[in-house]
Fold this protein.
Amino acid sequence: MNEDDSNSIKNFLLSYGLKEEESEKNSDIIIINTCTVRQHAEDKALSFLGSLKKISTNKKIFFIGCAAERLGEKIKNKFPYISYVIGAKSYQKIYEILRNELYLSDHLIQNTFSLNSKISDYQTISRGCNMKCSYCIVPDVRGMELPVPFEKIIGDIKKKAKNGVREIILLGQTVNSYIDKQSSKKFIDLLKEISKIDEIKIIRFLSPHPVFFNDEFFEEYKKNHKISRWIHLPLQSGSDKILKKMRRGYTIEKFKKVVDELRRSDPTTSITTDIIVGYTDETEEDFNLTLAAIREIKFSMVYCFKYSPRFKDKDQLTITNKELEKRHQVLLNEVKKIAKELMYERIGKTEEVLIYSKNKGITISGYNCCIIDCKNMKEGDIYKVKIENVKNNTLYGRAI
Ligand code: SAH
Ligand code: SF4
C-alpha cells in the first residue's frame, strides 16, 4: 500500500511537470513514505532521514506515512530540517500541501494515468483495519477500515486497463472484508465487476483474512479464471494458543479448511503466507507447531518475521534475541526447502503466463517465469507455457 501511495504522489508531481531525481542531493523535494509495522522499518526510515542532514538546506523534506503517524510532530525536535510531518491517517493532505508549496494550481500538463504504463498495477480498495490483532500497530496508525467507493474503484481500474494494465492487485489490510455501505457492494461484487473488464486478465488481492472467506467466494473462484491462482493467506502461527493470544479469530483447523477449499476448487492454487516467530509466550512447543503447520500446508513461500513489540505496555518479547534469531533461521531453512520442492513439482505442468516484458512474465499461480526460445511474445498477453526447468526461483518453460 505504501508503494501504491508513493506511486500516486509521484504521478501527481510528474503530472505537474516535475522531474524525478535519482539522487537526494539534486532534489528540491524529498518525500519519505514510512512504515512502522516493525521497529526495523521505522529505524530504516529514521536513519535515512538522519543521512539527509548534510544536504537538507533549501530542500522541502516531507516525512509521511505510518511512522510519521506514530511519532508525530515531535520528530521535528530531532530532525529540525523536516518541513512537514504527515501521518498515514491524513495522507491526503500531502496533495493540498504540495499544491500550495509549489504553486501548482494551473499547470497540470497530463493526466496521471498516462504517465505510468505498466502491465501490473495496484488498486487500493480500502484503508485502515477493523481487526485488533494484538501485535499489530496498523489499526492505530491507519485507523478504522475505510472502503474506497465501489464505482471509483471500477472507474480507476477501467482507466488503468485502457492504459495497458492487465494485472490488477487489489489492496486492503483485510481486502476480502470489503463492503461499500452505500451501494452494499462487497468484495465478491468487485471481483465479478472487474472480471467484466476485457483488458484485465488477472485479478490478485492482498491480503485476504482467513475469517472473511465464504462459499460465495469459493464458487466464484472455481469458475472465474481471472481470479489469481496465487493466494496470499497470512497464518501468523501454527499454535492455537498463540493464535488466540494474537486475536486472529481462527484456529489452525479453520485455517486449513480455507486452504483445503481453495485447493479443492483449483488444485493448481499456490498459497503463500506470513509467519511471526517469537511472539509473546511462544514456547518451543508452539514454535514446533508452526513448523508442523508449514510442513503440512506446504506454502509456496512464507514471509517470516521476527516478532517486534510495538507497544510499550503489552506483549513484550519473552525469549532471548538469540533464541528469536535461532527460531527465525530454522523456519527460513524449512520454508526454503518446501518452496523449492513445490517449484520442482511444477516441471512438466502447463502454466498460464502473463508477459511483463520480452520473454519474462508471471504465472497466474504467482511464479516468475522465463520463456525459452521465445519469438514475438506480446507484452500483456497470456501464453500457455510448459514448464521445463527451475533456476533461481524462476520457472523456465516453452510456449505451447
Ligand atoms: N493486514 C495484513 C497484515 C499487514 S502487516 C494481514 O492481517 O494479513 C504484514 C505482516 O507483518 C503481518 O501479516 C505480520 O506477519 C507482520 N507483522 C505485523 N505486526 C508485526 C510485529 N509487531 N512484529 C512482527 N511482524 C509483524
Ligand atoms: Fe494488523 Fe492485519 Fe490484524 Fe489488521 S488484520 S490488525 S492489519 S495484522
The first strand starts at residue 29 and ends at 34. The chain is about 35% helix and 20% strand.
